[in-house]
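Continuing the series of single-chain predictions for the mutant panel. This is the parent chain; the variants come on the following pages.
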Amino acid sequence: MENPKKPFAVVVGLDCITGLQTARILASHKVPVIAIAKDPDHYCCKTKVCEEIYAADTAGIALIDMLEALGPSLDQKAVLFPCTDMSVLQISQHRRRLDQWYHVTLPEHDTVEMLVDKISFLTYAQNMGLPVPQTFLLKNRGEAEEASRKLVYPCIVKPPIKTSLWQENTKAKVFKATNPAELLSLYDRCSQWAEILMVQEWIEGTDSDLYSCNCYFDGSSQPVVTFIARKIRQWPPETGTSCLGEECRNDIVLQETLRLFKSVNYRGLGYVEMKQDRRTGKHYIIEPNIGRPTGRSAIAEAGGVDLVYSNYCDALGWPLPENRQQKYTGVKWIYLRRDIQSALYYWRRGELTLREWWRSWRGKKAYAVFSWGDLGPFKADMLRALKLALAARISKEKATFPERRKQTSQVIPDAQAK
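Parent structure:
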């Protein structure tokens, strides 16, 4: 490899929207990017912004082995950008093995484990008086039955951490239950994918009541970048991930984010999602994400705030970029394909007019997948969606075909008998 003007950034988890956006953001700052993906055939890996893309299990020890093998080929110490929770855990746990070749911007490993694991974080948040919804931990069917009698419905069911086993069985982050029977049915299904499940009070509100703070803390645990945004729509509705968001101001979300991360002497990229209860106006912490960019980190860059690049510069000990102050210009972030699905869902329910849909798309935007200068991922994503839709249609037709064939076979013999 040639000795670049800037040290490499190594993006771990290119095979997701977060990884794709991170690679594009860094490349836009003339940072050379190497990427690692568990699935190199993923549509996000069709990007042309990376100099090299390597394949490895980003959730296991194979990631560390890959990084160790790559390290000696680097002319300068690179900056690591893990883009999934499991890769954050692996890199944090084995950071000493990687220190010779990589800059790792993470807090102490005990802090990483506590913040990534939802059970540990719940205990910490309750002890610190942080606002979290009522939550029950389910280790067996008996505890699930007891919780089903105590909960106020609806509620949500989720794992303490999305392990590989969970992700192999479902793409959903959480599941929603509206009554005790649904909760127990979800427990019976999801308990096969996680040893412990969490069931949590549903905070009343719509997608637009979900707020987030993306931030970066330096080695002195000082917040050098913060950026507040909120969802407008998500997919799947109510329990999915954002497909349309916008920059906004919410001082409560900012204050609670700073209170949480300062209390643990945090360092690195951080994210806190909170939901405002429509009934009381109170904000509750839904979850933190730590040590990595998130799907909507790119909204900060579109709003003129160098969130990800600040991480890169700080890791190298370089002066921080000047653009670190949020300007509240109302910039938006959109995943086109998913937002069309979400908007159609609400339109069919009579909860969204075509005019409202159009207005929600107006203004300056950052795109999750689409890019005029890097169309490969967008084309691959759309082609994949088309193939899935055709496969679903063919499957549906095949399900009804045996009945039609049976009816035909009953008519022909009668005709021949005549």
